[in-house]
Amino acid sequence: MPLLSVQSLEKSFGGIRVSNNISLDIPVGGRVALIGPNGAGKTTFVNLVCGFIKPDSGRVLFDGKDVTSLNNAQRIRRGLVRSFQISRLFHDLSFRDHIRLALLQRDGCSGRMFSRIDSSAVREEEATAILEKLNLAHLGDQKVRGAAYGQHRLLEIAIAVAMKSKVLLLDEPAAGVSRSELPQILNAIESLPKEMGILMIEHDLDFAFRFASEVVVLASGAIIFHGSPEHVVQNAEVRHAYLGSYKAKPLGGKA
Amino acid sequence: MIVIGSILVDTLSYGMVLFIISIGLSITLGLMRVVNLAHCGFAMAGGYFASYAIESMGVPYGLAVLLAVIGVVVLSMPIERLLFRPLYGKSDYLLQVLVTIGIAFCVIGLTNYFFGPTLKKIPLPPMLSGPVDIGFRFIPAHRIFVVLSGLLIFAGLWFLIEKTRFGVMLRAAVDNASIAASLGIKTQRLYTMTFVISVALGAFGGVVGAELLPIEPHYALRYMVVILVVVCIGGAGSIGGALAASLLLGFVDTASKYLFAGYAEICLYVSVIAIVMLFPGGLLGRKIHLPTSTSAASIDPPRRRIAFVSSLGIGIAGLCAYFIWPEYSGYFSRVVSLALLVISLDLIVGYCGIATLGQAALYGIGAYATGIVALEVGHADPLFLLGVGLVAGGIAGLISGLIIVRATGLAQLILTVAIVQLTLAVANKLTWLTGGSDGLAEIVPGKLFGVFAFDFAGELGYLLGLAVLVIVLLVITVIVNSPFGLLCRGIKGDPVRVAALGGNVNRTLTKMFVISGMVAGIGGSLAAITSSVVGLDSLSFERSADAFIMLILGGSGTIFGAVAGVISYLVAEHLIAAASPFHWLIAIGAILVAVMYFLPTGLQGLSSELKRRWFRSSTASIRSVK
Q1: Are B193 and B314 members of one domain?
Q2: Same domain, B46 and B94
C-alpha cells in the first residue's frame, strides 16, 4: 500500500485547469522527482496535497486514510510535511531552537509553560544528532539571521527530519543555492531516513535525477511522463514540453 | 420617514468630512506603506491655523482656508524630510506606529502651547452659515458646501489618478515601487508630492469639517480611530473604497446617535469591531501587507538564572527604596502597578509581535473588578481582591485575545484601539456599577493575613505590591523560557512557518493574551487597593499609549526593561510635567521619536549594546596583543 496516494486530482482557477486528472503514488521509501516547465502546476499540486487549497474533485489518501477534507495542520500532525521554496525560518532563534521547536511540536509538548525548553535529555540528544547529521552542529547556538543561505536550506531539511515526517514534500530545496553548496544539500537529502517517502520539486534536472528513482513530468497541469530518470530525457513529449509549445492530453495515471 | 431622511442627510455630510480627511491617509498608506497616526494632527493644525487667521487676523473665510492648507503643508515639509522619509516602504510597522504617535503627541503639545487648550471656533461667512430648506427640514448651508467639496475632491482625485501622467506613475509605484524606480520613475519625488497632497487634503478636511469634528486639543487622537477604520475598511489607496467606507461609518455613527442616543459611542465601537472583523481586507481595493517583522528591535529574552537573580535584585532594590524614602510609598506603589501593566504589554508585543494599543482595557477591568467587589464586600481580604483582579483580567484577556488574533496588520491595530475605547464607553455608561465619570472611591481592603491593616501612607500597600511584582517576574521568567515561550517567539518570527510545523497559532496567541490579561489585571487590582480609587483614566487609550512608550523606553522582549522603562518615564514626567502638561506631551513625543530612531532596543538594548562593544573591544585588544 502506498504511503501517499493522490487520485485523479482536479483543480481549476477560473477557466484554467491547473491540475488535470493527476494521480500519483509515493510508496514507503519512495524517491520521486516532480519536474516540469514554469507554469506546469507544480506548486499548485503541492498546495493541493498539503491541504493549503481544496481540490475540485479527486482524493488524497495518506497512510491508508482519506485526508482530502483535512486542513494543512491536521495533515502535518499525521506526518505529511512540506518544506518551503523560499526559506521561512525564525530569524531571531538559534539553529538549535528551530530543531527544539520542531521536536516539541512533534511530541505535543509545545504548549508547556512551566518546564524548560531543554528539560528533556532525550530530545536534546536527538536535536544534537540531527544537527550533526546535517553538518550544522557547529552553528547550534548561533542565530539564523546572518547564516549562509545554504545553511538555511539545510536547516529547512533538518526541521523536516525533526518532525518525523512520513512523507516529505521538498519544494525546490536547492533554489537559490550556489553550485558549490549543491553537493551538501544533496548529501543531506540522501541522508534522510530510508523509510521516508519523498517528493521533490526541482528545476535543476541533474540534481533531480541524481536523487530520484522515479521522475514525474508535469506540463499544463497534467502528467505527461512517469518513469525512470534514464528514460525521461529520451521521451519526445517531455523534450517537446520543455523546448517547444505543448498541448497536454491527460494520460490518466501512470504512463 | 423624516428620521430616516435626517439620518441620510447627516450621514452624507459627516461621511464626506471623514472622506476628505481620510483619503490622504489612504493614499499615503497605499503608496508608501506608512501607517501615519499623526494624520489627524495635520487636520487639527489646519483647523487651528484657520481659526487663528479668521479670529485674530480678520482674514476672510476662503482665504483663511487657503492659508491654513498652505501653512500645514509648509509645516509638514521638514517633518516629511526628516522623519517620514526613512519610514517609506521598508521599515517595520511597529516603528511607524510609534514614531507617528510621537509626532501626533508633539503636534498636540505644540498647538496647545501656541493656541491654548480651548475649543476653537472657525466662524463661517454669512453665505455658508444660513439654513437651507431641503423639503422636510432645514440644514445649514455649510453642510451642502462640505458635501460638494467632498464630491469635487473625489472627482478630482479620480481624474488625477486614472487620467494623468502623475496618476500612471503613482499607480505603478503603488503596485511595485522598485520596478517603477527601475523604469525611471523618480519615486522619492513621487512620495513627497503624494505626501503634500495627503497633508493638504487632511488640513482642508480639518478646516471645513470643524462644524462636525470640533477643533480641540485632543483632536489628533480622538478622531484617529475613526479615520483609521475608514482607511482599513475602504482598502488602502482606493478612492472609491474610502468614500464607501466613510459613508458607511458616517451612517453607523449618525444612525446610532439618532436611534440609541446615549449609547451612540458603544454602538459605534461595537460596529467598528464587527465591520473590521467581517472585512479585514477592506471593502474595495487591495489588502495592504504591512511589513511586520520587528526586525532590528529584537533582543534575546533573559536566561532563567540571570532573570531569577534580577527579580530578586529588583525586590531588594525596592526594599532599599522603601527604607530610605518610606514617605514616597504611595508613589512607589504606582511604579509597581504600572510595571505590571508594562510587563503584560511586553508579553504581547515583545514575545508575540502583536502591536496592541488597547492593553489598558485589561488593566482597567482588573482595577474596576477589584473596586466593585471591595465596595460590595467591605474590608475584603486584599489577597482575595488581587485574585479578583487576576481572574477579571484573565477573562478580559481571553475575550480581547479571541477578537484580536483573528486579524493582522492595520485591522489588528484598529481592533485593539476599538476594544479599549469600547471598554471606556461601557464603563462610562454603567454609572450604577462603575460610578461613571466620578469613578469608584474609598476602596478599603481588610487586613492582610487578618493582621496587618492598610495605612494611609501606603507603606503596607507598597510592600505587598513589591512582593507581587517579584512573584510575577519569577513566574513570567519561567513561562517565557518554556516551550510555550519558544513557540510564541516562533510565531512572532513567522506565524505561517509555525503553522507548517503543525502549531496552532491562534490558540497559542490567545493563551498568551490570557496570561497577559492576568498580569495586567493584578496590576490594576494593585492600583485600586493602594490608591483606594479607580477612575476612567485607568482604561483609557492614553494609558495604553503611555504603557507602550514605557515599554519602548525600557526595551521590549526583555521583561526587566519594563521596570526600567516605567521608572525612567515617571522620573521624566515628574521633572517636565511639573512645568506644563503640554510641555510633557511635546517632550514625550520627541523622546518617542528619538528612541525609535536612535535606540530601537530601548534602555535594556543600550546596556547589552554597551556590553557587546566592551567585549568586542576587549577581544580585539587580545587579538592585537597576539
Answers
A1: no
A2: yes
| B304 in contact with chain A, both atoms CB, cutoff 8 A | yes
Note whether A70 contacts B: Cβ–Cβ < 8 A: no
Which tens digits make up the pLDDT trace of B568-588?
Answer: 888 888 888 777 777 888 888
CB nearest A114 (choices: B482, B501, B511): B482
* Cβ contact B483–A115 (<8 Å): yes
Per-residue pLDDT band at B290 (split at 50, 70, 90): low
**Is B202 domain-assigned?**
yes
Containing domain of residue B176, as a range? 2-127+139-278
CB contact under 8 A, B482 and A115: yes
Q: How many domains does chain B have?
A: 2
Of A77, A102, A113, nearest to B484 by CB-CB distance is A113
CA distance B436 to B240: 40
Contacts of B595 (CB under 8 A, 6+ apart): B552, B553, B602
State the cell numbers at A212.
Answer: 530520484
Query: Average of pLDDT values for B136-150?
Result: 87
**B174 neighbors B12 (Cβ within 8 angstroms):** no
Do both B255 and B312 map to the same domain?
A: no
CA distance A228 to chain B (A): 31
The pLDDT of residue B608: 65
Which candidate from A93, A102, A112 shows the least CB-CB separation from B493?
Answer: A93
Distance from CA of B555 to the nearest CA of A (A): 16
Question: What's the ipTM?
Answer: 0.84
CA distance B393 to B341: 11
* Cβ contacts of B600 on chain A, cutoff 8 Å: none
Query: Is B289 domain-assigned?
Result: no
- Contact at CB, B499 and A72, closer than 8 angstroms: yes
B493 neighbourhood in chain A, CB within 8 Å: 89-93
A214: exposed, middle or buried (Cβ count in 10 Å: 0-12, 13-18, 19+): buried
Assign domain A4-91+165-243 one CATH number from 3.30.70.890, 3.40.50.300, 3.50.50.60, 3.40.710.10: 3.40.50.300
Both B233 and B354 in one domain: the answer is no
Q: Which of residues B540, B558, B586 is at a domain's end?
A: B540
Q: Is residue B293 part of a domain?
A: no
Do B324 and B201 reside in the same domain of the chain? no
| Per-residue pLDDT band at A37 (split at 50, 70, 90) | confident
3-state secondary structure of A91: coil
Strand, coil or helix: A62: strand
Domain range annotation of chain A: 4-91+165-243
Among A76, A77, A101, beta carbon nearest to B487: A101
Using a CB–CB cutoff of 8 Å, tell me whether A146 touches chain B. Answer: no
- List Cβ neighbours of B24 (8 Å cut-off, separation of 6 or more): B39, B197, B198, B199, B200, B201, B202, B205
- Over residues A114-138, the mean pLDDT reads 89
- Same domain for B104 and B145, yes or no, is yes
B269 and B312 belong to one structural domain? no
Strand intervals (E) in chain A: 4-13, 16-26, 31-35, 57-62, 65-66, 80-82, 167-171, 197-201, 214-219, 222-227
| Distance (Å) from the alpha carbon of A76 to chain B's nearest alpha carbon | 6
DSSP A124-137: HHHHHHHHHHTT-G
- Whether B201 is in a domain gets the answer yes
User: What CATH number is given to the structural domain containing B192?
Assistant: 1.10.3470
Name, in order, each residue with C-beta under 8 angstroms of B336's C-beta and a sequence gap of 6 or more: B318, B462, B465, B466, B468, B469, B526
Contact A102 B483 (CB under 8 A): no
CB contact under 8 A, A117 and B479: no
Whether A17 has a pLDDT exceeding 80, the answer reads yes
The pLDDT value recorded for residue B585 is: 81
pLDDT in tens, B361-415: 999 999 999 999 999 887 788 999 999 999 999 999 999 999 999 888 788 888 9
CB A220 within 8 A of CB A40: yes
